[in-house]
Please model this.
Amino acid sequence: MYRQIMVPVDLAHEATLAHALAVAADLARHWGASITYVGVTSPVPGTFAHNPGEFARKLAEFATAQGAALGIETRAHPAIAHDPTTEVDDALLRAVDETGADLVVMQSHIPGLVDYVWPSNGGKIAAHARASVMVVRG
Amino acid sequence: MSDTDAQGIPEPEGHSQLIETDYEIGQDNIETSVGPFGLDIHNPVFLISGLSIIAFVFYALVLPEQAESFFGWLRPAITSTFDGFFLAAANIFVLFCVFLIFSRFGSVRLGGADATPDYSYIGWFAMLFAAGMGIGLMFYGVSEPMSHFSSSLGGITEEGGARTDWAPLGAAAGNEAEAIRLGMAATVFHWGLHPWAIYAVVALALALFSYNKGLPLTIRSAFYPIFGDRVWGWTGHVIDTLAVFATLFGLATSLGFGATQANAGLNLLFGVPVGPTTEVILITAITSVALISVVRGLDGGVKILSEINMGLAALLLLFVLLVGPTLAILTGFGKSLLAYGEYLPALSNPFARADDNFRQGWTAFYWAWWISWSPFVGMFIARVSRGRSVREFIIAVLLVPSLVCVLWMSVFGGTAIQQFVQDGYTAVKDAPLELKLFEMLKELPLASITSFVGIILVVVFFVTSSDSGSLVIDTITAGGKVDAPVPQRVFWCIFEGAVAIVLLIGGGLSSLQAMVISTGLPFTIVLLLMCWAILRGLQDEVRGT
Model:
């Protein structure tokens, strides 16, 4: 069914990703698909990494560890956004094309009032990506 | 990496010397949500700066006379007591930058040996220029050359042994050609190498300690070589809070005054009534556009607006150059450059000078002003300069903008002076500051169109300061994190407009602006320390290769 699953990850908040990671892994095993973990960083030092190089390295380590633990084929795809707060959606949409993903599995929060004004990342990706998008709650 | 293919990470960043510290970026941050808004703010910088800004606005409103007399005394007291210090320090910054261009440190690359630039030359230059000077050029481009020209022409007047005239150096009484040269040299002096060297020092310090050393992008990081891990404690909190304070008040008071000036222009052109109503509408409009810009982000908002801004400014410049006295302006550009070179040693000499009014009231005032803006502009320049070598960086931040300023002043000021000298047109000379540009344009063809472009430029210049300022404040108050939630930058952008409106209606703009300029004094010491920190940091980079 699906061959290439893309999972956007914010590794500074890895704890909140548990559900999406588990769902993606289940689906990957079910269809024999591979998973690409996409992380978006800024060039400026952040909580998770001090520079894009370190970010790429840590993301790759994360992907390898996930692959070994879950027994699936995994890859890492780091992307840079100058201003991640506002550009993360665009960076993820580009990543969908670059990774050739046919399914995106992403974590989302419970929608609140603000989501009526600002669409959530998941909402925007679902609206614009060519791939199928599965938004995982909770 | 160019602007258009900002995707993936093309190659390793190469060699750089990370500073090993136990501090984790964001460790003091509070991640919480207020109502429906998620927040990620630095504790305690966010709260302290927010509350102290409110306290000072309150003070200026409740005790207006006291605030005005205190800050009205403080500012000139600082610029006239410490004028020698300001002048000497600014000279050090220029010499320091020139030294870096030619030293072996020039080849150190910001972001590691193999880093590639985040922005193309045009986008990069447009952003650093629009944040750095922008609006001042619109108001002083015509008026300052004119002021120095006429005071020089007027010659020296003395009373009780002290100079009462405002002419630079020894003036040029009655000598028109020399007065033009001296006037242009003095103007370029205030807008050329010195201010840009001030920005370059702050920007370089921040870029170096963030991109190469891995410290958070916030003012305190530049002090790591001096204070060590103490910068993560109260020492750093105070430095960051001061920077937020100077940035927000600097922007808010300029916004307030800018609205008054734009209003005067609109009145002259379209008969729009002058008064608080129009001004509040203007501030609201400027803030709204800035808001859209910050919500769209650095690439989707700030960069695009900066480029539009530069494009419009270039068009206006080209227009005045072509329909004005083209030949006189072009030779004037060359003459201004030569005059600047010739008078530079005398104008920058901090000691044993007689031109007290000019040195203290103009030069020291400008230096304090640029320095109080330097945390904001420097941090913004740092944000967009990753991937440049130190040499490239200094040339682009110091030399290119200085040349552009000479050109701008020669075109706008030169045209106004020509109108006065050749045609005896005195409207520019007699007009109040905010109208001089429009009086000058009036004498040229298509005045209604160019004046309208002028007004638009004034507004856009304000927007480009306001949006980049909000991003800078947001980053500082998020402990150097650039991925803080959107509501925070929205908050600072609105807060800045609100402070401007409150001060405009309640009074207190001038006293708080005087206060901002007073922060130039402590920041001068801060900047001198930064030079030392930069040297230490660059030595490590060179040694490590």
About this structure: Chain B has one domain: 29-101+116-394+404-544.
